[in-house]
Amino acid sequence: MPETFRNPDPAAIRALLKSVRTIAVVGLSPNPRRPSHGVSRALQQFGYRVIPVRPAVDAVLGEKAYPTLSAVAEPFDLVDVFRSPEHVAPLVDECIRLGVKALWLQDGVVDEAAAERARAAGITVVMDRCIYRDYIALCQD
Q1: What is the pTM of this model?
Q2: How many domains does the chain have?
Q3: How many angstroms from the chain centroid is the CA of residue 80?
Q4: Residue in 141, 102, 96 with CA at minimum distance from that of residue 125
Q5: Other C-beta atoms lying within 10 Å of the C-beta of residue 91
Q6: DSSP string covering 25-65
Q7: The CATH number of the domain where 53 resides is what?
């Protein structure tokens, strides 16, 4: 039986958050009441550049939006996912094709098989955790 997925330890998550500058946020909603919007706005306030990845939207939080990760025309350091779990496997395939270095799956976004596939491809994976809460807990010195 394969071992269940384990997130990096807090020190590794802190190091990841300290090294990242630009975050592609998949599923970033233009609706200010949605968690993806509030978290992304906070990430901007923490100093990160946020690139919205959402079809049928021109811009969110003052940044040009792209319909897919593959369409993003500029470099990014981490992919933060606010999509339901059934969308994770194809996103992981896209991340592997693009050579993404780090993937963050927000609270409730769980696909252990896809996360293991990403990790086996050399991608740092954090799953079922909130990037905002981890930033507050680990990076505010």
Answers
A1: 0.95
A2: 1
A3: 1
A4: 102
A5: 24
A6: EET--S-TTSHHHHHHHHHHHTT-EEEEE-TT-SEETTEE-
A7: 3.40.50.720
Residue 5 placed within a domain: no
Residue 104's identity, in one-letter code, is W
In which domain, by residue range, is 61 found? 10-139
Per-residue model confidence as pLDDT tens digits over 19-76 = 999 999 999 999 999 999 999 999 999 999 999 999 999 999 999 999 999 999 999 9
Residue 129 lies in a domain: yes
How far is it, in rounded angstroms, from Cα 46 to Cα 6?
26
Let me know how many helices (H) and strands (E) the chain has, helices first: 5, 7
Burial of 53 (0-12, 13-18, 19+ CB in 10 A): buried
